[in-house]
Design brief:
The protein has 2 domains: about 130 residues, NAD(P)-binding Rossmann-like Domain (Rossmann fold), CATH 3.40.50; about 160 residues, Dihydrodipicolinate Reductase, domain 2. About 30% of the residues lie in helices and about 30% in strands. The protein is built from 9 helices and 14 strands. The longest helix has 19 residues. About 40% of the residues are buried.
C-alpha cells in the first residue's frame, strides 16, 4: 500500500484528496497545511490526520503530493527528496530556474519518482488523439480565464500559459530557435495578458495567447500539419480532425473540394473523447510509475523544460520594460 501525504490542502488540494481516496493501493496518511481554518475544514470533511509539521508528514509517507503555492515548492520538494520520498508537485515545478535545476539534480541523485502536475496532458480531449500522428508546422493556442486572485503570485505565463507550453513541447520534438513575446500588466504586479511566438528548429511555429482577465473562458489549441487540421477544446472536451481522406477514414464524414491539382476528398472525424477525470488520471499514473518502477509521464525534466521556456518568455517581456517575476 502506497502511503501518501498531502502538502497543502487548499482549493486544489481538496480535489487531490478526493481523487487519492479513489485510487486502489493508495492510502492517505494525512496532510499538512499551516492554515488553521483550512485544516479544521479538511479534518472535519475527510477525517484525515493533520500533521503539525511538513517533516512529520514526510516521515510518515512513501510519497508526497505538493499542492502548496509555488513559492513553497522548492523547500517542500527538497525536504521530501532528501528523505527519499517520491514526489508529485503541482506546476510550475519551482519559483525560479535555479530552484528547478536543483530539484532535478536532487531527484536524480535520490533515484526517486517525480511527476509535475501538468494536468492538461491528461485532458480527455488531448487523450483522444493518442495514437494519431501529430507533426504540426503551425500551432495556435488561446487560453483565457476570468480573474481569480488565486494563483496571481506568479505571472499569467507561469499560471496559465505554462500548460500550453508543456503540451506544445510534448508534441513538437525539436529545439527552440527563437521566442518573441509581449505582455501587459493590468490587475496585478505581473503580466496578466501575454502573446508569444515560439519558432522551432524544425520550422514549426507556435502562437500562444493567455489572459487571466477575460470576460469568458477559453482553452483551445489548433494544430496545422501536412494534409490535416486538428482542433482541441480543452474546456468543452471536444476534438476534431479535418484531413485528406485515407483508408482509415471509412466511418468519417467526407466531402469533395476542387483544388488546382484536382479533386480532393476531405474527411472530418470527431475522435471519441473518453469520459475521464484528468486529476485522477495523473495521480494514478504517478502511483503506477512508483509501483512498476517506470518513468513518470510528466517528469521533473519535462517540468524544467516548460519552466525554461516560460522564463525566456518573461525575460522577453521584461526587456520591453515590464516588471515581471
Amino acid at each position: 500500500m502506497l502511503k501518501v501525504g498531502i502538502l497543502g490542502a487548499g482549493h486544489l488540494g481538496k480535489f487531490h484528496i478526493n481523487n487519492w481516496l479513489k485510487i486502489k493501493d493508495a492510502e492517505l496518511v494525512g496532510f499538512f497545511d499551516p492554515n488553521d481554518e483550512t485544516a479544521k475544514a479538511v479534518t472535519a470533511q475527510y477525517g484525515l490526520k493533520r500533521f503539525e509539521t511538513a517533516d512529520d508528514l514526510i516521515d510518515a509517507s512513501d510519497a508526497v503530493d505538493i499542492i502548496a503555492p509555488t513559492n513553497f515548492h522548492y523547500d517542500l520538494c527538497e525536504k521530501a527528496i532528501k528523505k527519499s520520498r517520491h514526489v508529485f508537485v503541482e506546476k510550475p515545478l519551482a519559483d525560479t530556474m535555479e530552484q528547478a535545476h536543483r530539484i532535478v539534480k536532487l531527484a536524480k541523485e535520490a533515484n526517486i519518482k517525480m511527476q509535475v502536475g501538468h494536468v492538461e496532458r491528461f485532458n480527455p480531449a488531448f487523450l483522444a488523439l493518442k495514437g494519431y500522428s501529430l507533426a504540426p508546422m503551425f500551432i495556435e493556442v488561446h487560453r483565457l480565464a476570468q480573474f481569480n486572485p488565486r494563483g496571481t503570485e506568479v505571472s499569467v505565463i507561469l499560471d496559465l500559459m505554462i500548460h500550453d507550453i508543456d503540451i506544445v513541447l510534448s508534441i513538437v520534438k525539436s529545439g527552440v530557435k527563437n521566442i518573441s513575446a509581449s505582455g501587459v500588466v493590468v490587475m496585478t504586479e505581473t503580466p496578466d495578458m501575454a502573446n508569444v511566438r515560439i519558432e522551432f528548429n524544425n520550422g514549426c511555429v507556435a502562437n500562444l495567447t493567455s489572459s487571466r482577465i477575460s470576460m469568458k473562458k477559453m482553452r483551445k489549441m489548433r494544430l496545422f500539419q501536412k494534409d490535416a487540421y486538428i482542433g482541441i477544446d480543452f474546456l468543452d472536451k471536444k476534438t476534431e480532425i479535418i484531413k485528406l481522406k485515407d483508408e482509415n477514414d471509412k466511418d468519417a464524414f467526407t466531402f469533395d473540394i476542387e483544388t488546382p491539382s484536382g479533386t480532393k476528398e476531405i474527411a472530418i472525424a470527431n475522435p471519441v473523447v473518453p469520459d475521464a477525470n484528468a486529476i485522477l488520471l495523473e495521480l494514478e499514473a504517478f502511483a503506477l510509475a512508483i509501483k512498476n518502477n517506470t518513468p513518470t509521464p510528466v517528469s521533473e525534466v519535462d517540468g524544467l523544460l516548460a519552466m525554461d521556456i516560460a522564463h525566456q518568455i518573461l525575460q522577453k517581456i521584461q526587456s520591453a520594460n515590464y516588471v515581471v517575476r
